[in-house]
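Input sequence (142 aa), recorded before submission:
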Amino acid sequence: MESEAAHANELAVKASRTEKRIAWLTLILGAGATLAALVLKEQRWAAGLAVGAGLAWLNFRLLGRGLDALVLQSIAQRERKKVQVPVTTYLGIAFRYALIGLSVYVIFVCLHVPLASLIFGLCSLAAAAIAASVWEVLKPVA
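Predicted structure, C-alpha cell format:
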C-alpha cells in the first residue's frame, strides 16, 4: 500500500512537470510564430497569433484547474460508490469554452484579425503538447 502511494505521488510530480512544460511551450511557440509574422510585416496576423496563443494558454490553465477540482472531489469521496461533483465544477468547465468562443468572436469582429491566425495561435497548445510528449520520451526523468 505504501509503495502504491509513493508511485502515485511520483506520477503526480512527473505530470505536474509536464503540465508546466506544456504551459510555457505554448507561450514560447506562440511568441515565435508572432515574431515570424512581424518579421514578414504581417501585423494583423501577428496580433491574431499572439491572441490565439494567449487564449490557448488560458484554456489550458482553466482546464487544469477544472480537472484538479474533479480529482479533489473524487479523492474526498473515495469511499462512496458514486462521487457527487458540484454543478459549479461542470459550469466552470463549460464556461471556459464559452469564454474562448466569445473572445475569438469579439477579437475577430473588433480587431479584424484573420480568423486563420487566431486558429493557428490556438493550435500552439497542440504543438506544445506534442513537443512536451516527445520531450518526455527522449529525456525521461528517472
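Checked by second reader. The chain is about 85% helix and 0% strand.
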